């Protein structure tokens, strides 16, 4: 009997950069392809910097499709989460979250989460199950390298 994949996957690390600097890299979709550890993102139009819940930003994916990302959690400099969907379609229920906690030494504890607990699109289940903490960690590592350079 095989064990079911967890529906919430998390990775975290400490980055030697201020939370505000890291948040700018995350909240500006045009910067996201620079640190995407899954090499899934190609580009996003400039000028989509997220400023609050309810905003939507678009991203071109490596397979050539576009995703609209609906911001569902937001605290400037500390928290951002979005639910992707195909343009004009209902959100299938998975969520990407970034949490930043400033540390006394000027660094930041960064937590990256993929939550597919509410995923309703059966076509996405295989990919959701294959998303691991190591994959999230690759994005954290690239984000850290970019911010610390």
From TrEMBL:
It comes from Pseudonocardia saturnea. It holds the Pfam family Polyketide_cyc2. InterPro entries: Polyketide_cyclase/dehydratase, START-like_dom_sf. It comes from the Bacteria. This is Polyketide cyclase.
């Amino acid at each position: 009997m095989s064990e079911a994949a967890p529906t919430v996957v998390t990775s975290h690390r400490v980055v030697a950069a201020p939370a505000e600097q890291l948040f700018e890299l995350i909240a500006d979709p045009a910067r996201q392809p620079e640190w995407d550890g899954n090499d899934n993102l190609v580009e996003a139009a400039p000028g989509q910097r997220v400023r609050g819940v309810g905003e939507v930003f678009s991203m071109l994916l490596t397979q050539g499709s576009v995703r609209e990302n609906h911001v569902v959690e937001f605290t400037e400099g500390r928290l951002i989460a979005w639910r992707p969907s195909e343009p004009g379609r209902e959100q299938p229920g998975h969520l990407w979250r970034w949490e930043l906690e400033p540390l006394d030494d000027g660094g930041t504890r960064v937590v990256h989460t993929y939550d597919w607990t509410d995923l309703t699109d059966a076509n996405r289940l295989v990919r959701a199950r294959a998303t691991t903490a190591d994959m999230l960690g690759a994005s954290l590592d690239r984000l850290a390298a970019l911010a610390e350079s």
